Amino acid sequence: MIAKVIVDVPSRGTDRPFDYEVPDKLAGWVEVGSRVGVPFGGRVVQGFVIGLAEFADVDRAKLKAISELLDHNPPLSPDLIELAQWISEKYCCTLTTALQAMIPAALKGKAETYVSLAEEEWSEAPSLLSEENEWVDYIRRSGGTVKLAALQERYPSEASAVKAAISDGRLLERVSIRDRLAVRKVLTVYPPSDPAAAHEALVLLPARAAKQREVLRFMLEQDEPLPLQRVVEEAGTTASTVRALADKGLITIREAEFNRDPYAGRSFQQTTAMSLTEEQTAVYDEISSAIDSGDSRVFLLHGVTGSGKTEVYLQSIQHCLQYGRQAIVLVPEIALTPQMVERFKGRFGDAVAVLHSRLSNGERYDEWRKIRERRAQVAVGARSAIFAPFERLGLIIIDEEHESSYKQEESPKYHARDVAVRRARQHGAVVVLGSATPSLESYAAAARSGVAVERLAQDAGSTSSDAASRTGANSPSGHPAASGKPPALLPMPNRVGGRPLPKVQLVDMRSELKNGNRSMFSRELHEALALRLERGQQSVLLLNRRGHSTFVMCRSCGYTALCPHCDISLTFHQKSRALRCHYCGYAELAPTQCPSCESEHIRFFGTGTQRVEEELSKLFPGIRVIRMDVDTTTEKGSHEKWLTMFGDRQGDVLLGTQMVAKGLDFPYVTLVGVIAADTSLHLPDFRAAEKTFQLLTQVAGRAGRHELAGEVIIQTYNPEHYAIAAAQQHDYASFVADELKHRQVMSYPPYCRLILITLSHEALPLLIATGEKLATLLREAVADMGLASAAGANGRFIDILGPVASPIPRMKDRYRFQCMLKYRGNIDATGILQDAIRMLSDRQGQPPVQISVDVDPQVIL
Ligand SMILES: Nc1ncnc2c1ncn2[C@@H]1O[C@H](COP(=O)(O)OP(=O)(O)OP(=O)(O)O)[C@@H](O)[C@H]1O
Ligand SMILES: [Zn+2]
Ligand SMILES: [Zn+2]
C-alpha cells in the first residue's frame, strides 16, 4: 500500500503529497490522518498521511518506506484533512501549515537519534559486552537503547569509540520522531479489588504493621485510584509502606496516565436550565429545530448586552448533546474569563474541555486528548478550538462574532468564523454567530435572508431591491455564508427581565478644557465616581488604548524615540523604565536627556492605565483600584485573581483596557466610564468607526445588568461622530446605516473583498522592483481575463492597488511594501494571485523577497 504524506517542511516547494510505501507490519495501522515519521532529504521528518492508494505516482522501486507510526490513534480525521485543504486554498498557505494549526503544539514532533546494542551481531562482531566500558554498561542498563544525545552528554570523551561501534555495526543508529511533550504518567495506587478480603487482611496484619494498616484502611475508603504522591501525603505515610502493602497483593501500584487538568480542584457550582423568556424561547426553538433537521444552517443572533444570549447557548448545547452530537463554543481569548468558563462547567461539568492560550502546552494537550478520546462533548475555547477533534458536531457557537481576534494574524491566516461555517457544512451542524454588535459582514449577509432585507433597506435609507443587489447573491460580501444559504437573523432586542439598557451620557471634553478642567476626568465622571464610592457600589473604567501608546517625545525639539529596526515609536514601560518595541522586542533604557538636543524636557506621552490609576488615587485618597492591562495580566491566573477580587468587592474601580469591556457580569457595577472614546476613531483602518462603536456598546453593557440600574459616561472630543452618537442611543441600526453608506462610497467590505499582500526584504531597490513586477503581473492577468477594474462599479470588478510602502514601512530591519486586491463578484482572486506569485518566484533574488498573503485582512496596519 502507498501512503500520500504531507511532510512538515513549510515551504511552497514541498507543498504537495509525497508517496511512501507502507511497510507490511504497519499496514493495518496507518490511516488517513495518521502522523508518521518519514525519510526526507537525508533526514527523518514528521508528516501526515492525507491519502492511501494502491499504486504510486512514481517508480515503486524508488519509493522509501514510512519509518514509523507515531500514534496508534490518528490525531487527525479525514474531515479535518479536507478542511485543511480548503484552508490552504482559501488563505494561500501551505497544507502543512494548515494541518499543524489543527493539532496541539505538544504533537509537533522533533527528530531524535537513538542508538541500540546490535544483539544479532554479538556472535560475529567483537562484542561490546566483552568490553567493560562504562558507556556500554549504561546502554545495557537503559534497556539496550538510549538517545545518542544522552550518550554524547554523559561520555564526551568516548566519541571515537561510539563512532567506531556505529560504523562497524555493533551499535545501531535509528532516527525517530519524539513528541515535544508526552502523556504524563504517574505511579498510581488502586484500591483493593476485593474489599472483603482486604478487610479480613486488615484484621490479620501484625500489630507492628500499624502504618500499613492505616494505609490499607485509607485505601479502602477510596472509590478511585489516587496518585502515589497523594496517598503518601494524605495518609501521612511513606512510599515504602504503600509498596509493602502492594507486595502483599492487597493493593496495586501501577503507572497510569495522568491528566493535567487546568481546573483541577476547582468545584463549579452546578446550574440548571433557567426558564427562558419569550424572546429566548423563540430563538432557542429556531436553533434546536435546525439542529434536529441535520441541515447545516447559520444563524446570526443579534442580542443586546444582557439579553441572555449565554443561556440560549447553554440550552442549545444541551439539546445538541441529547442526540449524541458535540458542540464547540468559541469565545474571544480576552473574554475567556473564569466567569465564562464557570458558566459552561457549571452546566456541563466534566463534559467540557477548555482550550485557550494561557494553558501550558501540557494542559492544552490533555484537554485536547479529552476530546479525542470522547471524554468531553463540549469544547469551549479561543479561535483554534474550532479544530477540536469531534466526530459528530451538532452545533458551533461563536460568541462576540464581530471580534477581530477570530482572525489569526500568523499563517495560516484563517478566520475562525469562515472555518466554522465550512466545518459545520461537513457535519450537517448549526452555526450560531452571537453578538450585540454584529460585524457589518455578517449583518449584511444576514440581510440577504428575507425579513432582514427590508430592515437593512430602511436602515440604509434606500429600497429593498437596492440593498439586495448591493449585498446580493452575485456579489460575495466577504462573509463565509455568502456561498451557501445566507445566515438567518435572530433578534433579541431586550434585556432579560425587562431591565433597561443603561443611560449613556456623552461629555464633550473640548468644553471641559475651555472651562479650565485639564484633568483627564470630566466633572461629570468625577461626581459619578464619588457617588459610587459613597454608596459602596462599583465602577468600571475603560481606557481605550487601541492605537494609543505611551511614547517618548522631547518638548524642546520634538524628537521621538523610534525603534532602530522597525520605524515605529518605542513604548515606555514604567516598571523597568525601558523603551520597548512592540514588533521586534528591541529594548533600551529610557533617556533622561534628549539624545538629539540634550534638553531635559523629554517626556512620556499618552494616557497609560498607570497614569489613570495615579490620578484616581490623587482625586480619591484611599480608593481601591484594580488595574487590568497587559502589564498586570502576564502572569498565569492573574486575570482570574483580579476578577475574583473585584467580584468579591475588594475593589471600588476596575480599570483597564479592552479586557474589561467583554463578558463581565457583576451585580454591583452601576457606573461605566470611558476615559477617551476617540483614540481608536482616527486610525488608518476602514473599520475604525465599527471597532469604536462595538467597544463602546460592549463596555456600556457591563452596567446595570442586575437589580441596580446602571449609568454610563463616555468622554469624547467628537460627540457628533455617528459611531459615538449611535453608541449613546444603543442604536445599532442607525450606526449600520451610516457605516454602510461610507463603505459603499469607498468600496470596502461588505461591498467588496480584500486581499492584502505584503512584500518584505532588506534591500529596498530589489523590494520595490519585485513589488512593481507583481503588480504588473496581476494587472496583466486581470486584463487578459477581461475583468473590469473600476472600484465603485456595481457589478463584478477587481482592482489592484499599490505597491505602496506599508503603514509600518520597516520591521525587524526589513522594508515592507504592500499591494491590495479589491474585488467583487465571482472572481478567483486567490488563484490569480497564486499564479502571479509563481511566475515571480524566479525573479525574487537571493535571499528571496518574502511575500505574505492575508485574505480578508482584519488588521490593515
Ligand atoms: N431566562 C432567564 N431568566 C432569568 N435570568 C436570566 C435568563 N437568561 C439570562 N438571565 C440572566 O441575565 C443576565 C444576562 O445574561 P447573559 O450574560 O447571558 O447575557 P448576554 O446576552 O450573554 O450578555 P453580554 O452580551 O452582555 O455578555 C445573566 O445574569 C443571566 O444569568
Ligand atoms: Zn530634544
Ligand atoms: Zn523593532
Automatic annotation (TrEMBL):
Q: What is this protein called?
A: Replication restart protein PriA
Cofactor mode of binding and number, as noted: Binds 2 zinc ions per subunit.
What Gene3D superfamilies does this protein map onto? P-loop containing nucleotide triphosphate hydrolases, PriA, 3(prime) DNA-binding domain
Q: Which cofactor does it need?
A: Zn(2+)
Q: Where is this region: Disordered?
A: 457-501
Kindly list the positions annotated as binding Zn(2+) 1: 554, 557, 594, 597
Q: Supply the EC number(s).
A: 5.6.2.4
Q: What gene, per UniProt, encodes this protein?
A: priA
Functional description taken from the UniProt entry: Initiates the restart of stalled replication forks, which reloads the replicative helicase on sites other than the origin of replication. Recognizes and binds to abandoned replication forks and remodels them to uncover a helicase loading site. Promotes assembly of the primosome at these replication forks.
Q: Which residues of the sequence carry a binding annotation for Zn(2+) 2?
A: 563, 566, 581, 584
Reaction(s) the record says it catalyses: ATP + H2O = ADP + phosphate + H(+); Couples ATP hydrolysis with the unwinding of duplex DNA by translocating in the 3'-5' direction
Please name the SUPFAM superfamilies in this protein's record: P-loop containing nucleoside triphosphate hydrolases (SSF52540)
The record's comment on protein family reads: Belongs to the helicase family. PriA subfamily.
- Mark out the compositionally biased spans (Polar residues): 460-477
Segments forming domain Helicase ATP-binding: 290-456
What the entry lists under Pfam families is as follows: DEAD, Helicase_C, PriA_3primeBD, PriA_C, Zn_ribbon_PriA
So which domain of life are we looking at?
Bacteria
Q: Which UniProt keywords apply?
A: ATP-binding, DNA replication, DNA-binding, Helicase, Hydrolase, Isomerase, Metal-binding, Nucleotide-binding, Primosome, Zinc
- Species the sequence originates in: Paenibacillus oenotherae
Q: What is annotated about its quaternary structure and interactions? A: Component of the replication restart primosome.
